[in-house]
Amino acid sequence: MADVVTRFAPSPTGHLHIGGARTAIFSWLLARHFGGRFHLRIEDTDLLRSKKEYTDSILASMRWLGLDWDDDLTYQTERTDLYNSYVDKLLESGHAYWCSCTPEEVEAMRERAREKGLKPRYDGHCRELGLGPGEGRCVRLKAPHTGKIVFDDMVKGRIAVDASELDDMVLRRADGMPTYNMAVVVDDHEMGVTHVIRGDDHVSNTPRQILIYEALGLPVPRFGHVPMILGPDRQKLSKRHGARAVVEYQQDGLLPQALVSYLARLGWSHGDQELFSMEELIRFFDGKNLNPAAAAFDPAKLEWCNARFMRDLPLNQLVELVEPFAKAAGLWERLGNDPYGRLEPLCVMFRERASNLAALAESFRPLLVGASELVYNTKDANKHFTEQGKAHLAALAAIFSKVEPFDAGAIEAALNAYVADNGLKFKEVAPPLRTALMGFMGGSHLNEIMAFLGKPETLARLARAQDYTPPAAEQDA
User: Fold this and answer.
1) Which of the following is catalytic: 142, 239, 383, 402?
2) Is residue 472 packed enough to be buried (19+ CB in 10 Å), middle (13-18) or exposed (0-12)?
3) Residue pLDDT, tens place only, 226-277
4) Diameter of the chain measured on Cα atoms
5) How many helices (H) and strands (E) does the chain have?
6) Which one of 23, 48, 212, 386 is separated from 355 by 20 to 30 angstroms, measured CA to CA?
7) Domains within the chain, CATH numbers bracketed
8) How much is the pTM?
9) What span, in angstroms and rounded, lies between the C-alpha atoms of 199 and 288?
10) Is residue 239 annotated as a catalytic residue, yes or no?
11) What does the alpha-carbon distance between residue 165 and residue 185 come to, in Å, rounded to a whole number?
12) What's the Cα-to-Cα distance from 223 to each of 22, 94, 156, 188, rounded to whole Å?
């Protein structure tokens, strides 16, 4: 294939959300697959709603996702003169004309069309009047009245629209500002864009843009309109479905590679493969196998995907990534003089039990507080700190106090010996021991937990558990 050039063109009226992120991913992958170029354009012409903080957030989210762009960033507000130079070309070639109709007059035309059961539209009143520039005048495209505008969509297949469905659209408003469709055509041409992947809410814009391309005598890019992402209930995706801005997923502790992999699979497939590295996505994504049916967002599937990526990360990378979350949770200072050395065993113990970095960091808390600060799950404590459970804890405390060295292997041998020598089953001993060590029925292997805690802290926790009494309200009940 010839050089492929794609683009992503967000409006900085909010943070980057997953629908826009997926469009960016598809566009970026197509360019990278063919060794082409990917451009980022900020469509900031909505001066009232566009904010620098949103631009900064979008750029940060793109970088976090690993979606780099070629050449300089483009801002539409800096290109007004360029757009108007193209409008002037259309005026000079006779493909556009000046229009003096006021908004009220245009609305009256539309109302008359509605009354006749016709499509509400501008009726071409100024089309042949030969007007020139003047106060309150806009510029309109002289669109064809007959024929069809046809294009082969990368997602939806062949689309044909009757020219009679379209009116003479405004290219330059009365205030001198170019319209969206005009600016987009100019930008995409100037950037050499060959393929436009965007949401299918833009399908209605495409025939209009094709008319502008043709009027200017410019090559028309290939279009692909991906359907919107729906919630699990097949309704429009919203926060109630668990959908959030990319920056929020980052703050929650998702891995960017997991989010990219998950979003790529919403509307695209490569066989039955579920998880993809970025290298695999670049290798496989050629613009084909894009599904015309809307995909449903599943927060649980995203968590599963993230957990799988976390599990496969090299340990040193996981330690580095979880560090800021441990600090945010107020746990960093509890790691002592060797925080990285202490984080490694914690990551090993809990990485398979957490679905994101924030949850992983929080899972460290029970092992980083002192025995007196450990919070008991009342239900687990009441169930397992029985007289028999406490007897096991007392016996184990005596045994563990003599274990040297106090490492995972020696601890496991001592625990297994206690169970075997007393004709017990492990399930009789493990629940009270686990609850005494963790405060609840969870956590990693018991010997690993005790080795991490060290002998003094382990014995302190066993002693505290032996003194446990149910809360007063439950004693009375």
Assistant:
1) 239
2) exposed
3) 999 988 888 888 777 777 899 999 999 999 999 999 999 999 999 999 999 9
4) 105
5) 21, 10
6) 23
7) 79-226 (3.40.50.620), 246-367 (1.10.1160.10), 370-476 (1.10.10.350)
8) 0.91
9) 16
10) yes
11) 20
12) 16, 27, 10, 12
